[in-house]
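Molecular record:
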Amino acid sequence: MTPGPEAATRTPASTRGADTSADAAVRALARSFLATYARRGRGGGPWAEPGPVVLAVLLARTGDAEDTLVARAAVRRWAPDALARRVGHSGLHDGGLAGMVVGLRLGATLHPPLASVAERVRVRLAARCARDPWRRTGVGFADYDLVSGPAGILLGLGAGGADVGVPGGSGAGVGALVAHLAGLCAEPGLRRLRIAEFSGQPWPARFLGRVNLGLAHGAPGVLLALTAAARAAGDRADEILEPLAAAAGWVAGAAVPDPNGNAMWGPVAGGPGAAGGAGGAERAAGHREGWCYGTPGVSWALWEAAQVLGDAEVRRRAEDGFRSSARRFPLERRLFDGGVADRLGVCHGAAGVLAIADAFARHAGLPEAITLRTRLTGEIRAELLSFPRLFAPADTTLLGLAGTLAVLLTPTSGDRGWLRCLGLR
């Protein structure tokens, strides 16, 4: 389901909780970012990203009348700019058509004329889904993943059917996507998810022939999409649950022990000699620990699947993995290549871990998640306010300031619908 008109309704002051000066400073930074965006538009890059719209809706929810005016101006600037740019693929992030639909629909809550535009773009997406262009063997990321593939379309536009809809029934498009992802999980060892090509992307050769374990580009993103589909299907979910259980069990089994013997996940597992099991799991030490790769994202995907499956063992492993990850996660540790986007962004950095911690705190009640959420909120906020020299491209959800500010505003906004774009809720 896509957020409805209520997404733009401002949160009443009585329900916001204590409005600290730090909260106000974050809103002021968001207002400044959106005001600049409304004047200038996107600075560069070939694709449109819904990041400014996500941030605008959240600012309107948490702010005052002036904030709402700024938010609406940013949305009105974003829409024609987005529609004039090239669509890179059908998926959710990095300039995909599903991401444009999400942005237009969210934008319509602040600028209603966008609703009809969103519907026209949705029809284009439905036509693409109807052609079922995704490979079932020899796959690359775009054939399944959360960023550019079917998993992201399901998560971003809703697993219920009406949002994607194709000729032949409102659920036909979603049904085809679910069937495709379930089919990829049907063979032992997730053999159909072993990467065969990268479409010219500079990924390490050691990833070829193995199953990617990142939330962004790997099996955990598929788990989240199938979990959402199973929740929407209710008592009609039997055909989803079997491949979901098989995939969740395999990913859980791909863990390697951390120094304390707790589960953690590296970037890949399962090689040509793994004989259908998770053998060949790569050691996680020294690899990225964030939303896109590493234990935080994998733990969340497994926890969500376990909730639907009623699998206590997978849930235990997911919670143990996140607890261990939370205890060893310092912001001062450079998460990958360094730089502001890697350090504070959603995809690679601390904002993505904060969003996962918030989800675990809200839905699982893990004390370690609550502690990490509090600590990361303060540390990210302090660092942003110390030097608000934005990352580039600053308007993207995954790598830009828009996404990081959206994560900071979400807990007090009352609007969590956009988190589906991250596989969260």
Remarks:
- The chain has 15 helices and four strands.
- The domain at 27-35+46-269+285-422 is CATH 1.50.10.20 (Glycosyltransferase).
- The beta strands are 211-212, 256-257, 263-264, 268-269.
- The two ends are 12 Å apart (CA to CA).
